[in-house]
Design goal:
Elements (H helix, E strand, L loop, with lengths): L2 H5 L3 H23 L7 H28 L2
C-alpha cells in the first residue's frame, strides 16, 4: 500500500486496515509454524505496511490535535 493511498483514508479506516494487517500477520506466523508459507517476503511487506499505516495515523492525529488548539 502506497503512502498517498493511506493519506487519502481517514483515521478510522487506517485503524481498521492496521487491525486487518495485524490479523493477517498473525495468520502468516501460524502458517510459518506449520511450514505452510511459500513466500516469506510477505512478512516484511506486512510489517512495512503496518508501520506506514501507524506513522500516517499518528501524523493525522497530531494534525487534528494541533489544529484544534489554534
Amino acid at each position: 500500500m502506497k503512502a498517498q493511498e493511506i493519506r487519502d483514508l481517514n483515521v478510522e479506516e487506517i485503524e481498521r486496515k492496521i487491525k486487518e494487517l495485524k490479523e493477517s500477520l498473525f495468520k502468516l506466523k501460524v502458517k510459518l509454524s506449520t511450514k505452510q508459507v511459500e513466500n516469506t517476503s510477505q512478512f516484511k511487506a506486512a510489517k512495512k505496511d503496518i508501520a506506514r499505516l501507524l506513522t500516517i495515523a499518528k501524523e493525522k492525529k497530531a494534525a487534528v490535535k494541533g489544529g484544534s488548539a489554534k
